[in-house]
Prior knowledge:
There is one protein chain. This protein is an all-alpha fold. Helix content is 84%, strand content 0%. The chain is built from two helices and no strands. The chain has helices spanning 2-25, 28-79. The model has no long low-confidence stretch (mean pLDDT 81).
Amino acid sequence: MSIQKDHIMFALGGFLLGTLGLKAIKSQPAKKLAVNVVAQGLKMKSGCEGVFEEAKARFGDIVAEAGYLNDSGNAAAASKPKSPARPAKSK
Length: 91
């Protein structure tokens, strides 16, 4: 029987905690706190977006410069005259 009594006590405790939690959430100080937390989160998001955009731009510059060097290296190698093949030495 003590198991049933424990279950009933847990159910009543949960109901009481839920009721008090709902009352606390509806209170004005809790609303102010929630608004401040969300405002700080939005500020952090805005700051992170700026950092990510700058990193993305720098990465794009690096990739573009690497592509240019790669293309100019291939163009220089293609325009370079090839040395004539030397005949093999005979023994």
